[in-house]
């Protein structure tokens, strides 16, 4: 079986993330979407909330499993028996960082390869950080995230949903 993992924080999941997920799901028999539980960060959403939002947003894609993990990515790759790590790239600055991670992962676990997918132009500017900032000031994030995610973000910030 051809199995890959697309790891990330997904705090929150954006339309750019969903585009990479959909495109990756077409390339592999099984795609794990790994939600990192990074204890050194203070995310807006808990890992459980992020997993649930991703499950809702990807419900129509049959060959996806959304799970959380912590620790080294290569350890999780071994655990799920994946052979490829999928990473999205928006700009050249992403590539420099992602290349270092890919090379480190390959040194730690030579059986894993990293595949880079470039963001579609319409999502090349988009990041979870930008979405959180816009939402925190009550800005319209309807073009950046699925409606349910936008609703939950506004609730977190105590702001009335812009779509209602």
Automatic annotation (TrEMBL):
Transmembrane segments: none annotated. Gene3D superfamilies: HUPs. CDD domains: PPAT (cd02163). One of its GO terms (biological process) is coenzyme A biosynthetic process. Pfam families: CTP_transf_like (PF01467). GO terms for molecular function: ATP binding; pantetheine-phosphate adenylyltransferase activity. Its EC number is 2.7.7.3. Residues 5-133 form the Cytidyltransferase-like domain. Substrate binds at residues 9, 41, 73, 87. The record marks 17 as: Transition state stabilizer. Keywords: ATP-binding, Coenzyme A biosynthesis, Cytoplasm, Magnesium, Nucleotide-binding, Nucleotidyltransferase, Transferase. It catalyses: (R)-4'-phosphopantetheine + ATP + H(+) = 3'-dephospho-CoA + diphosphate. Its cofactor is Mg(2+). Pathway: Cofactor biosynthesis; coenzyme A biosynthesis; CoA from (R)-pantothenate: step 4/5. GO terms for cellular component: cytoplasm. It is found in: Cytoplasm. It is an enzyme of class 2 (transferase). It comes from the Bacteria. ATP binds at residues 9-10, 17, 88-90, 98, 123-129. Homohexamer. NCBIfam families: coaD_prev_kdtB, cyt_tran_rel. PANTHER family: PHOSPHOPANTETHEINE ADENYLYLTRANSFERASE. Belongs to the bacterial CoaD family. This is Phosphopantetheine adenylyltransferase.
């Amino acid at each position: 079986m051809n199995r890959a993992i697309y790891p990330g924080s997904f705090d929150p999941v954006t339309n750019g993330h969903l585009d990479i997920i959909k495109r990756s799901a077409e390339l592999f028999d099984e795609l794990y979407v790994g939600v990192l539980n990074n204890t050194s960060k203070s995310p807006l959403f808990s890992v459980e909330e992020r997993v649930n939002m991703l499950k809702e947003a990807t419900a129509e894609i049959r060959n996806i499993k959304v799970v959380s993990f912590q620790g080294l990515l290569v350890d999780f790759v071994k655990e799920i028996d994946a052979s490829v790590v999928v990473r999205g790239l928006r700009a050249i600055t992403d590539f420099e960082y992602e290349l270092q991670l890919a090379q480190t992962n390959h040194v730690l676990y030579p059986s894993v390869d990293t595949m880079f997918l470039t963001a579609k132009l319409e999502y090349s500017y988009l990041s979870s950080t930008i979405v959180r900032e816009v939402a925190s000031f009550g800005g319209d994030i309807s073009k950046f995230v699925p409606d349910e995610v936008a609703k939950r973000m506004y609730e977190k910030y105590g702001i009335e949903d812009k779509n209602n």
